[in-house]
Write a structure and sequence with these properties.
- The protein is mostly helical.
- The protein folds into two domains: about 5-250, no CATH class; about 275-460.
- The chain is about 55% helix and about 5% strand.
- β1 and β2 form a beta hairpin.
- α6 packs antiparallel against α9 (about 195-215).
- The protein is elongated and about 95 Å long.
- The termini are far apart.
- Residues about 75-80 have low confidence and may be disordered.
Length: about 475
């Protein structure tokens, strides 16, 4: 294979709209999917690998078309020189290299933007990024193999669909190919470390094996190299499968397979956290997530400062909880801070509402919660919540508080409902400049469950409320 021939194939591959179009699509879709969430560099590279599946499929098709030109075009139309073996080697190498280059560009540009937007949490998983990038090259090498040995173009989408289905059903790393697959989807921020170094070795051996198998179409001597690559590839895949997360993920809701590493990091009284104190309240995050503490403070501190000093004393510290192992944690005093955090108001409201309910001793019972309509506490609760997020009418919603964990709430106050009369008075109280002084002056009466909404409005100097209708179990 001459350098000129290889350069020609690289230029041709770089200009291929299949590749640069797929790269732009991967970048845009990934950025759109994560724009509303704070960046966590412990999962961003692995998750971006899932988006790169689009580019991997495009690289497989581009490689197939490149190495099968001899069948589709007359030799006189080819702008290349050399024999068929040299053309296959050049096309295969160029397709793999170009796919890796485009994957690197997508990964680098995406991570740079996420890093810039911040605040960044988590420990950057470099090998996860390398692993995802090399997988695109492996897909290109597989496309070259199919291009040399199968005359049907449908072989590429068939292979892509089959691999895609196996990858999807292997999401929790519980079978269907394990780490013998080119990409392993879904990695939680508190999952055991991925064996990405071993898997990268597996993928590099796969590139060599597929490339040599493609060249074996022209000369059987390449079979020796293919077998040698397989001798590296199979043990590397087996080692990665053995080292990767396994039973602890399949049994994470039963607790039967929790590893000592998981227990040390996330469960028990000796878990390490980085803490800061604001307005007398402690905010504690896992060491790699301390950059998110200011975000939690911005959501909760306005509520804390709106409380009388005596009412703040009963608030528990804000402790970051795990995403996958929360069922086994002992420190449930406050788990409003999670390992994923949205840029929107949903999680802000959930964190603030937890403090409001505790301060006012509102304890919803059961899944259906309770109704605050007609109580003075409803006015105070919505006013406190309004220090952080604008209160709105009660309605059912699902708040994502984990990678795949959702909290069902009946209102911004959680499983607590209220009516338009309470909301209107709260908005009026938020609009006055001395709302805190008015509330503090009558705190004990306003927080008494026996105080009616009308009496609370009178004490706070607000207009008489409209009619309040209790539609569920009254909040005690």
């Amino acid at each position: 294979m001459s350098p000129a021939l290889f350069r020609f194939e690289v230029r041709r591959s770089l200009r291929n709209p299949l590749l640069w179009g797929a790269a732009l699509l991967c970048f845009g879709l990934r950025l759109h999917a994560t724009w509303g969430w704070l960046p966590d560099m412990s999962v961003e590279p692995a998750s971006t690998g899932g988006a790169l599946l689009i580019l991997a499929a495009a690289a497989m098709m581009a490689a197939y078309l490149a190495v099968s030109r001899d069948r589709r075009m007359a030799e006189s139309l080819l702008a290349t020189t050399g024999d068929a073996t040299a053309r296959t080697a050049a096309a295969t190498g160029a397709a793999a290299l170009t796919g890796i280059a485009y994957a690197t560009a997508v990964m680098a540009a995406y991570l740079a933007i996420r890093w810039y937007t911040g605040p960044v949490a988590g420990v950057f998983a470099l090998w996860d990024a390398v692993d995802a990038i090399i997988a695109v090259g492996a897909a290109a090498a597989l496309g070259a193999l199919l291009g040399r040995w199968t005359p049907w173009l449908v072989a590429v989408p068939t292979a892509a669909f089959t691999l895609g289905a196996l990858i999807y059903f292997n999401g929790n790393q519980g079978g269907y190919g394990g780490w013998f697959l080119p990409i392993v989807l879904f990695h939680g921020p508190d999952w055991p470390a991925r064996p990405s170094g071993l898997h990268t070795l597996y993928l590099m051996a796969a590139i060599v094996a597929c490339s040599c198998a493609a060249l074996a179409r022209h000369s059987s001597r390449w079979l020796v190299a293919a077998v040698a690559a397989l001798a590296v590839m199979v043990p590397a895949g087996a080692a990665a499968t053995a080292a990767g997360p396994g039973d602890e993920m399949a049994n994470r809701y039963t607790g039967r397979s929790l590893t000592p590493q998981i227990r040390e990091r996330y469960i028990g009284p000796d878990v390490r956290r980085s803490c800061e104190t604001h307005s007398g309240l402690d905010y504690c995050a896992y060491p790699a997530y301390a950059a998110w503490i200011p975000v939690w403070v911005s959501a909760l501190d306005p509520v804390v400062r709106a409380l009388p000093p005596a009412a703040r004393a009963d608030l528990p510290p804000v402790l970051q909880g795990t995403d996958s192992w929360f069922l086994y944690q002992d420190d449930h005093a406050s788990r409003g801070a999670t390992m994923v955090w949205s840029r929107g108001n949903e999680q802000r409201a959930a964190l603030a509402a937890d403090a409001v309910r505790r301060a006012l001793a509102i304890r919803p019972a059961g899944r259906d919660g309770c109704d605050l309509s007609g109580q003075g506490r409803a006015l105070v609760a919505l006013w406190l919540l309004g220090q952080s997020v604008a209160p709105r009418l009660a309605s059912y919603a699902e708040v994502q508080v984990g990678s795949s964990v959702f909290l069902t709430v009946r209102s911004p106050l959680g499983n607590v409902v209220y009516g338009p009369a309470e909301l209107e008075l709260a908005r009026r109280l938020l609009a006055v400049g001395d709302g805190r002084e008015r509330v503090w002056a009558h705190w004990d009466v306003l927080t008494d469950p026996r105080t009616s909404l009308s009496r609370a409005a009178e004490l706070l100097g607000l207009p008489a409320p409209g009619e309040s209708v209790v539609r569920g179990e009254r909040c005690a």
